[in-house]
Amino acid sequence: MIITHTFNPSIDITYNVEQLQLGNVHRPVQTIKNAGGKGLNVSKVLLQLGADLKAHTYLGGENGQWIERQLNEIGIPTIATHIKGSTRQCIAINDGSKQTEILEQGPEISQDEQHDYLDNFQKNHNHIDVMAISGSTPALQGNTSKNHVKSILENSSDSYNILDIRASELIDILETKAPVHCIKPNEEEFKTLVNESSLSDKKIYNSLKAHTLFNDLDVFVTLGDKGAIVKLKDKIYKAEIPEITAENSVGSGDATVAGIAFGMEKFYNENEKIIRLALSCGMSNATQKETGHINPEQAQEFANKIKVELL
Fold this sequence. Notes:
This protein is α/β, with parallel strands linked by helices and 311 residues long. It has helices spanning 38-49, 61-74, 111-123, 145-154, 167-175, 187-194, 201-210, 252-266, 271-286, 296-305, and strands at 2-6, 10-16, 30-36, 53-60, 78-83, 88-94, 99-103, 130-134, 160-164, 182-183, 218-222, 228-232, 235-240, 307-310. The strands form 2 sheets. It has a 10-stranded mixed β-sheet with strand order 5-4-1-8-9-10-11-12-13-14, with helices on both faces. A hairpin with a 4-residue loop joins strand 6 (88-94) and strand 7 (99-103). It catalyses: D-tagatofuranose 6-phosphate + ATP = D-tagatofuranose 1,6-bisphosphate + ADP + H(+). Keywords: ATP-binding, Kinase, Lactose metabolism, Nucleotide-binding, Transferase. Residues 8-296 form the Carbohydrate kinase PfkB domain. GO terms for molecular function: kinase activity. InterPro entries: Carboh/pur_kinase_PfkB_CS, PfkB_dom, Tagatose/fructose_Pkinase.
């Protein structure tokens, strides 16, 4: 069983326009509306991979009802904690060359709602193989994001726990020694984690080898079209990916997390297979118009072309 957590879901609306010009009226050539939030994107890709999963999330208002209907329609088993506030919307305007995003902050979660979420999590699972916590945390009444995330992690200390959150918050969580087993920073996030303004493969390798923040931790450092450098079970690998034509890279990191989660559950002792699966899911997502979507057959073709070298 794989569990995902999305504390700050959203309705993701993408407007594709011919050319974005500030101050002008635009009529989209295409509008795409999705149940979004990083953890829900992970859940959608896991569903396409055939995983046994459940998705936990906060949902409120008409937006929350719309997301819940969408998740039910596509078949994601969802345990929603209903809140008084309204789930947010996030807008992306894409003109083919650049994407402009407007991201709402999300509602405040009351202390009772936080308690209900944790209670729902505790009573709905007997055994968890892999758990993924992804994305931002909305305002929490009488609480901090760090304590909220930590409470979820500590209630699933026996599972393989993946944490994909803002780098500054990630540092705080890792320093508490909470049961985190894997992180997936991109290049900019990794710079924050190691306090570097620029990176080379050698710097990444040395940091993964020696930095105390990464002790006993699997780390997938994704580098866009340059592939990834991965620390997995205390071995470090360089992965090179084939060239692709990207349609929409939003959500590719979430698809990669889904690949890590599924790979860890199915192929725990096969490091290179896990790396290829994770990166191929991210690549396949980038070729799709819809966020949190892959083509499993295409992902397998990509996986066969990924070069993985033990450093």
